[in-house]
Automatic annotation (TrEMBL):
Name listed for the protein in its UniProt record: Putative receptor kinase
Domain of life from the UniProt record: Eukaryota
Molecular function per GO: kinase activity
Keyword terms: Disulfide bond, Glycoprotein, Kinase, Receptor, Signal, Transferase
Organism this protein belongs to: Leavenworthia alabamica
Residue ranges of domain Bulb-type lectin in the record: 1-107
Domain Apple: 281-353
Keyword presence, Iron-sulfur: no
GO biological process, one term: recognition of pollen
Amino acid sequence: EIFEMGLFKAATRLPEVDGWYLGIWYKRHRTIVVWIANRDNPLSKSTATLKISNTNIFLDDDQSGRPVWETNLINQIDIEPLVAELHDNGNFVLIYSNSKSILWQSFDYPTDTLLPGMKLGWDGSKNLNKTLTSWASLFEPSSGSRVFKIEKWTVSHGLLYDTGQVRYRTGPRYSNLVNITETEEEISHSLNITPNVSSILILRMLYTGSLELMEFIGGERHTLFYFPVEECDFYNTCGDNSYCNTNSNCVCIAGFQWGGQYAWGLTKSRRTCLRKSHLSCQEKEFKKLTNMKLPDTQFKIVDTNVGLEECEKRCFMNCNCTAFANTDMHDGGSRCVMWTGDLLDMRSYNTEG
């Protein structure tokens, strides 16, 4: 009896966003809506029928008789009776009544909120990419322009989009809050914090474009994580092969210097860091950078269970290798990450992440 499901009205005094929605919320905090079925197709009145038919769930508008939402399952065999249930973790499921196997679940189709037990990212077994999409505004539940996605490659991070463009990439503070799974069948992030019985914990993509981890204890709200918070959090704010330091200044990495065409006052012109000399296999020295956010590039090579010395040797043997790092894996092992292209979205921290 933790969650309730029913119809709600997002705004009672705003006629431009007048409409009713089928949603799930916390029973003790009815204003904390965690999932919405028909967010982009609201009901005109507060009367609707939720029914199971032909291996699907339908929400029909009683005024028009038309469906405003359905699970849209295809090629499913009606082999036994189906039952819809709302679980204590907030997951609304369609299951076979006898075998209890799940045919469909709301956790696979999140709106703007990640609950404990949910996963974001790519699920290869279902060919689903689960993302968080913000509300359009404070009182408008329809899909907004801000989206939180998980990178679909090894050494994944979270990406915050605005109108289709990457604005921010998460760093070590976020990585410490989530369980990260990276296999051939799944690349996903889930909350690694388990709330106690008296608290509520949610990660939400806000309509303002920020990502916030909130905890509710009684009537009090506490922010455990908020991103972004400073200028260095902007994606690749300093450009390729440079980093944003703790004073929010841009610095070229060792072996690079400021260059390229640049003119003050031109909005499309920016300084760039250019290599001082051409990359060569004869180069046998790397500059060590500490307390850094790892670069973002899909042009990287990952080897598991490889120590730092061996990782360095492998980078030396690859003429295209521009950087390497030895990172901890979430199962307790280690892996060698080697970058083979420009280094993007780097920044430094006062302490290790």
